[in-house]
Amino acid sequence: MTRLDLFIGRMVSQRACIDRAIALTQGMTEPVFELGLGNGRTFDHIRANVHDRPLYVFERTVASHPSSTPSDEQLVLGDIFETLPALLERTGKKASFIHADLGGHNPAKNDEFARTISPLIEGALAPGGIMVASDAMYFDGLTELPLPEGAFVDRAFIYQKP
Ligand code: SAM
Asked: How close is the Cα of 93 to the center of ligand 1, in Å?
């Protein structure tokens, strides 16, 4: 596999899993959390497809494409380890859907980060909610779901809270 193959596989898998998560959580009223704005591509896709729930985007430093920059109301600026618990406390609402794409180019570091952040994400998801990640996560109480059609194994992961 070339780096281009891997990149395309990740993008295709992200979109397929995000679309499945939105469909599975239709009718839920709890907000959607986008963890990691980056360039804003997945934020833009979620924003275009979720119209019935608030969307919050967590990012340390905004460097997104101008057309994919969240509004002040959507943006939660700072380190997720501080801002996610603070938002849960402020709103009193867990998420219907959490998408996390927080990693960089180092797989070992990404895995370590996934282990560290998994308990926080698990606690932030409402019952019946869906979590989509670019890295394998380490959850105690979430069920890993089969990948939707079009997604590639190990390029994206999808979980549900019972
Ligand atoms: N999905 C995005 C897109 O489509 O453009 C790409 C996200 S990028 C791979 C990961 C982002 O997560 C980076 O912009 C980084 O700043 C952010 N990030 C990583 N760890 C974070 C943390 N602890 N708190 C807040 N943001 C974080």
From this structure: 22
